[in-house]
Amino acid sequence: MNFGKNVDGQCTEGDHMLMGEIAPGAAGSTPLDYLPCRDAAAFPKEIPIAPGSEVLLEFYSDDSTADNGDGFRIEWSCENYFVLQV
User: Fold this and answer.
1) 45, 21 in Cβ contact below 8 A?
2) What are phi and psi for residue 40, nearest 5 degrees?
3) Distances in Å between the alpha carbon of 8 and those of 1, 23, 40, 41, 81?
4) What is the per-residue pLDDT for 36?
5) Bridge partners (DSSP) listed for residue 3
6) Is the Cβ–Cβ distance between 16 and 37 less than 8 Å?
């Protein structure tokens, strides 16, 4: 994997990931933000998500089939939020 090149704080080239948060009741397309490059952020990276929101992730990777341990890894934990169901 060739992790994205950091250009003005954004990973825009090479392997990178974009994220957009979809708020409840939102209409239209979801704007996506570049997540920090691997070498530009301390890991693990925590991304707080508002309760009741959905998240859209887009991954961009090279075509290498080498299983060398590089890549994307996502872990999450769900908090015990009370969400009123109508």
Assistant:
1) no
2) -105, 0
3) 21, 27, 11, 13, 36
4) 64
5) 15
6) yes
| Domain ranges for the chain | 5-60
Residue 51 has a CB neighbour count (10 Å cut-off) of 10
Closest CA to 11 of 26, 25, 32: 32
Tracing tokens 């990973």 back to the chain, one arrives at: 11
Tokens of 14: 């090479």
What confidence tens digit (pLDDT) does each residue in 54-79 have?
A: 888 887 776 777 766 566 667 777 77
Q: Report CA-CA distances (Å) from 6 to 11, 22, 41, 64.
A: 5, 26, 11, 21
78: tokens are: 């769900």
What is the C-alpha to C-alpha distance for residues 39 and 56, in angstroms, rounded to an integer? 23
Cross-strand bridge partners of residue 15: 3
* Residue 9 token pair: 């704080």
